[in-house]
Each structure stands twice: as C-alpha cells, then as structure tokens.
Design brief:
By secondary structure, the chain is α+β, with helices and mostly antiparallel strands. The protein is about 40% helix and about 20% strand. The chain has helices spanning about 5-10, 30-35, 90-110, 135-145, 145-150, 165-175, 180-190, 205-220, 245-255, and strands spanning about 40-45, 55-60, 60-70, 75, 115, 125-130, 155-160, 225-230, 235-240. This is Thiol:disulfide interchange protein.
C-alpha cells in the first residue's frame, strides 16, 4: 500500500495547497534563500544533528528536507539517516509538510457533494470518487457490506462522471434523487441489472455539485475510479486506487 505522502509527491495540485511559510520575522539564511529563489517553499525548521540546521520545504508539491551546514554556506538535499539506519527526515516532513496537506485534502472531500452509505455515527469514514458505470466501484461497494451493515464504516461516494458518455447524467440523477442514499443503494445493489437512468436535463444546482466534484478529482490528478481515501491507524491519510485485494480491506475498513 503506497503511503499517501508518496501520492502527494506526484499528484497533489498546488491550487489546493496553502501551507504557511516561516514567519517573515524569522530571517532565512542566504543559502536557504537561494533554494527558495529556485521555487522551493520553506514551510518550517526542525532539529538536526552535528550542527546541521534542518528545513522542511515544498517543491512542485513534493516534500524536501534541506540541511544547512554549520558554516551556513552549503545546503544538503535528501533524507538523513543515523548510524542505526533511522530516517531522521521522515518525521519532520510528515509533521511540517504532509500532515497539513492531508488535513486540507480531507477538508476538501468533506465539503464536496457526496452520498452517504452507512451509519452517520460510524467510527470510520472512507471517501471514494465513484462513477455509476464503474464496475470496480460496485465491487468495492460489495466488499464493504459487512463493515457498513455492522455500523463500523460509512462510505462517502463523491460522485463523478468519467467512464461513459452517460456517466455525468447518472451521477446527476443520484445527486438529484429524493433520497440519494436509497437511490445509490438500489443502483449498487442491482449491479449490472441497475435501472438507473441518466438525467437529460440537469438542474443548475446539481450541475454545480457535479462540476465541483470533478474539479476536485482533477486537482488531485486522479484519472480513474474508484479512488479511495482513508485514515490509517497512525492517523495518516492513505489512498487506494481501484478495488482493493481482500488482504487490504482490513487496512482500509478496519477489523470486522
């Protein structure tokens, strides 16, 4: 299972990131300023051994650890390991770069137009970008039934339309339904026999919701469904692309 931080390194759009820089009062050393001038955003400073000064930076949506040498004239880039092979850069980057990124992504998904599947008081929330014509979305829906029915997980389907020509209309039909949760249940429960019809005329309010979901998917540079997001046991946001294998279900949904 790839850590979400690795996904962020490659795909998270700068448009949705607003990480705070070091306060202006904290004057950066000239050598670090030169790195900043090349496009890196310095977001925090952390302790480093042997006279080094550590700086956490974001460059092209990627977390970087910078180490200023004691003379203040040279900057080392990369992960620093101690004599026991422990990565001394991982924790600072997680705290200063990836945790704020993950928090903002979760907030974006929570504010999106999703359809709930399961108990609102479920202890675990799992988001998924879902297309009504996606067979793997339906597969994950089936896989998740034991957890959802037990009240342990609520799936939140962020509806998009990317697979077929009628996908946007079908997603709009679900979002516009009198009871979206029941409409989604009927659609997913029927599988290939679903009678869901695409809306021919989509109300402006529903179109705006669908467009916002699609924009969020594009900002995250996701290209397929289901794209599943969950918080692991360490409190870190993780991502699963496609229906997970049985051994990964417990990581996503928790113990049965």
């Amino acid at each position: 299972m790839p850590r979400f931080r690795h996904l962020l390194m490659l795909t998270l759009s700068a448009a949705i990131l607003h990480l705070p820089s070091l306060q202006a009062a904290e004057e950066l050393p000239d050598a670090i300023k030169k790195i900043e001038a090349k496009g890196a955003k310095i977001v925090g400073q952390f302790d480093a051994p042997d006279g080094l000064r550590g700086y956490a930076a974001q460059y092209q949506n990627r977390g970087m650890a910078l180490y200023l040498t004691p003379d203040g004239k040279h900057v080392l880039l990369g992960n620093l390991f101690d004599a026991d092979g422990n990565d001394l850069s991982s924790e600072p980057l997680q705290k200063l770069v990836y945790a704020p990124m993950s928090k903002e992504v979760l907030a974006k998904m929570e504010a999106s137009s999703w359809i709930a599947d399961g108990n609102k008081d479920a202890p675990r929330i799992v988001y998924m970008f879902s297309d009504p014509n996606c067979p793997y979305c339906n597969m994950f829906w089936e896989q998740a039934r034991p957890w959802v029915k037990a009240g342990k997980v609520q799936l939140r389907h962020i509806m998009v339309g990317i697979i077929r020509e009628d996908s946007p209309g079908k997603s709009a039909a679900l979002l516009a339904a009198k009871d979206p949760q029941k409409a989604l249940q009927d659609h997913e429960g029927a599988g290939k026999a679903s009678q869901l019809k695409a809306l021919k005329e989509v109300p402006p309010a529903i179109q705006a919701k669908l467009a916002a979901n699609m924009q969020l998917m594009e900002e995250l540079e996701l290209s397929a469904t289901p794209a599943i997001f969950y918080v692991d046991d360490k409190g870190e946001l993780q991502q699963q692309q496609g229906a997970p294998s049985p051994d990964k279900l417990v990581k996503i949904l928790g113990p049965k």
